[in-house]
Amino acid sequence: MLRKIAGRPAVITGAASGIGRSLARRLSRHGSPVVIADVDEAGLAETAASLTGPVLSRVLDVRDADDMRRFAKETQDWLSLPLAAVFNNAGVATSTTVLDSRPEDDSWLFDINYWGVVNGTRAFLPQLIERNYGVIVNTSSVFGLVGMPKQSAYCAAKFAVRGFTDSLRQELRGTGVSAVTVHPGGIRTGIIRNGRIHAELDEQGRSLEQIAADFDKIALTTPDKAAEIIHRGVERGKARILVGPDAYVFDALARIAPTHYFSVLARLFDR
């Protein structure tokens, strides 16, 4: 089902930086009134100042379901056109083995990466259902396709986003509303620098900045390119959007070698 969202209102969480900021800028350039939210007030203000069209900006912690519902009502009151798209994009990162994991870090991540998506979906879905038009776009990851070492909490949350959204998609069959999962590969964002990455646990003795720099070297896609892929994928009616060439590699390996993909990846990285 083709979905026209350019020029129509969109909500974007995690809009203070990265993919969220690039999505806001792209949709604004295409004539969409955009409603942006993030817990990072300064970054959110920078995003808002860079937009060319109407914008409603709101500091928001996506973990707070009650405030998310208030945000949805504020959005409805502000818009003069029906809402067309909701991008539940806010996300954070951790990196540790299961043995060394810190429960408080895992809970923090899961509350944002999974429950933030659920809260956003539940708050805005009634507006789309009422008009029988629109799309919920939930950001998972390539780590929602495969499990990776030192990413147990992140993978668990992103697999949960995938399962939640896939279930929602089936519930919406026969309506004018759809649900999409986005699976980015490595995107050059600040997710490592802004995450709970404990450098003292790094086996190579790297500092946080070195860990982030190493991630940037293998991240193949810019946020602007990711936003372009996501926008086009949504409008073409895709149910699952893979972002970046590495995302296609992960997807293929998950299908071809569902229990041995990491051995293949390890050999590729060695080369």
Topology, element by element:
Elements: E1 10-13, H1 18-29, E2 34-38, H2 41-49, E3 55-59, H3 65-78, E4 85-88, E5 94-95, H4 103-113, H5 115-131, E6 134-139, H6 152-171, E7 177-184, E8 196-197, H7 208-218, H8 223-235, E9 240-243, H9 245-256, H10 261-270
Helix pairs in contact: 1-8, 3-5, 4-6
Shape, principal axes of CA atoms: globular
Helix content: 40-55%
> From the helix content, strand content and strand pairing, which structural class follows?
alpha/beta
- The strand count comes to 9
Strand content: 5-15%
The tally of helices reads 10
Helix-strand pattern: EHEHEHEEHHEHEEHHEHH
Rg computed from alpha carbons, rounded to a whole number of angstroms:
18 Å
Describe the protein in words:
The protein has 271 residues and is an alpha/beta fold. It is built from ten helices and nine strands. The protein has helices spanning 18-29, 41-49, 65-78, 103-113, 115-131, 152-171, 208-218, 223-235, 245-256, 261-270; strands at 10-13, 34-38, 55-59, 85-88, 94-95, 134-139, 177-184, 196-197, 240-243. The strands form two sheets. The protein has a seven-stranded parallel beta sheet, sandwiched between helices. It has a two-stranded parallel sheet with strand order 5-8. The model has no long low-confidence stretch (mean pLDDT 92).
